[in-house]
Amino acid sequence: MKIGMTLPVMEPKLDRQVLRNWCEAIDRGPYASLAFGERIIFDNPDAAVMLGAAAAWTERVEIVTTIFVAQLHNPVMLAKQISTADMLCDGRLTVGLGIGGREEDYKAAGADFKTHKNADLLHRVETMRRVWAGESIVDGVDRLVGPPPAQIGGPKLLAGAMGPKAVALASRWSDGLCGMSFGPDPQEIAATFDLANKAWAEAGRPKPHLGTSFWFALDDGGRAQLETHLKRYFTWVDPAARDAIAASAGFVGSPQELKDVLRRIEDTGADEVQLIPTDSGLDQVHRIADVIG
């Protein structure tokens, strides 16, 4: 099982040096990938711009978006941004896509929340694949949208799908899952993977990539750190629900205890786990690397 590390893009007071230090530390460490996602009404970096920076600041690790909310973007423009990033990182890009859950982000981006459907996502992926395949997308215009991606046909696409219907539909367009576990709960993860394996088999597709992720905080002050992070992050949910999530979600413990959790997740058949930090301190990257390396 591969282990990736997420950049602390949802933490406050980020700057160029913090993000560069994280990218370079992850790239030097035992991590297989470097990940980050997007929000609009928040002070995180723009995900498409961050792709370019991550490509420039790394040489080895896979770069994974977890996730782009496809409906917030014009699919042709998003395809162009992704293929540019794939070119810049020499084919080290994997793209997680989903429909998101924040209506406020749809409104801020000028997107119609009525498109907040997995079926709509499927149509957008079809357009993006046409761009990466080098097809003309404007009637009467033979010129193509470039640059071509480094990976022929475009990068691997993963679905941030949750629930049986979403997973079943994802089997039609994605190469697997980039899931999320609030626990982290190996039984819940295994159940989702079982859904995916069944859906891909029924669709006549190769075995899916099985990925998941979870928040973590190390040592005795970890729960307080997680609560601070999650209460700040979950701005769009009811305060009571937000407090309940903050009080129970994520992993708290030592790096060695984290290693034990990762072993249990590996037993579910996971291909990859993305760790999500809840603080921007770089020491945790090195401490975990020392244990999992």
CATH class: Alpha Beta
Global structural class: alpha/beta
The residue-averaged pLDDT reads: 97
Ends distance: 13 Å
Largest sheet properties: 9 strands, parallel
The tally of helices reads 11
Which strand-content bin applies to the residues?
15-25%
Number of domains: 1
Secondary structure: number of strands: 9
Helix/strand order, N-terminal first: EHEHEHEHHEHEHEHHEHEH
Helix content: 40-55%
The name of the CATH topology is TIM Barrel
Task: Give Rg in angstroms.
Answer: 19 Å
CATH architecture verdict: Alpha-Beta Barrel
Q: For the record, what is the CATH homologous superfamily label? A: Luciferase-like domain
Shape: globular
Report low-confidence residues grouped into runs of 5 or more.
none
Task: Walk me through what this model shows.
This protein is an alpha/beta fold and 293 residues long. It has a single domain (2-224, 252-292), classed as Luciferase-like domain (TIM Barrel), CATH 3.20.20. It has eleven helices and nine strands. The chain has helices at 16-28, 47-57, 75-88, 103-108, 118-132, 164-170, 186-202, 222-233, 239-248, 255-266, 283-292, and strands at 2-6, 33-36, 62-69, 93-98, 156-159, 176-178, 209-218, 251-253, 272-277. Strands 1, 2, 3, 4, 5, 6, 7, 8 and 9 form a nine-stranded parallel beta sheet that branches. The longest helix has 17 residues, at 186-202. It is globular. It starts with a strand and ends with a helix. The mean pLDDT is 97.
